[in-house]
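Dear colleagues,

As part of the handover before I leave the project, I'm documenting each prediction I ran so the next person doesn't have to rerun anything. This entry is a single chain, and its sequence is reproduced below.
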Amino acid sequence: RELAAGDGTANASAEIERKAFSDCKYVSCKPLGLSMRLKPPDASGRVDVVFLYNEGADGFSAYTASPLPAGLRWSDRSRDVVKKLGEPSDKFGGNRLPVGIGYELLGLDVHFNNRSWDDAVNPIKFLSVYQQVDQACGMCTACGRQARFRCAQCRQESYCSSACQRADWGRHKEACASAADARLRAGLALGKEEAMRALAGSVSADAIA
């Protein structure tokens, strides 16, 4: 909290870096090996991702303030991570970008130094720690992976990404419109009932006065 607010000790404050963008803000302290992303970027912003860095990664010192998540160690390599945590729910990077793997149910992404998926001894560069995915969302309707969200309109279908949601829209749009309309009618009926109760309460209060 102190790092996010910029109210830490004098030594830590001197090393704090801030970068603001249109939708988020990053607050970093390289000597601590720690960075945080806040959304929105103004004073009301809340931390949605914490980044823990290994020694030398992007100029950061190694994060050592507490044990790493899920029993990981900075000395672990890519094969050690998979052995400890099992098969990941997500994979990203490769080609021109360093590879990484995600464990959404743990709220953890592991980013490695090198770009090859064939590198079994790829060192950990940094970790991203975020809110664990709610298993209540179930599996992605389109691809069967762990879903990250539900359709905002009907709240019935679950998806792992916006790409899967777009790919499924041709099949889903008719049922979505029907379900959303039913939710709207139910909400209007409930709102009308609550308004009538509030009005009755107001009339009673006026009569008593």
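Residues 162-208 form the longest helix (47 residues). Helices lie at 2-5, 10-14, 78-85, 162-208.

All the best with the project,
I.
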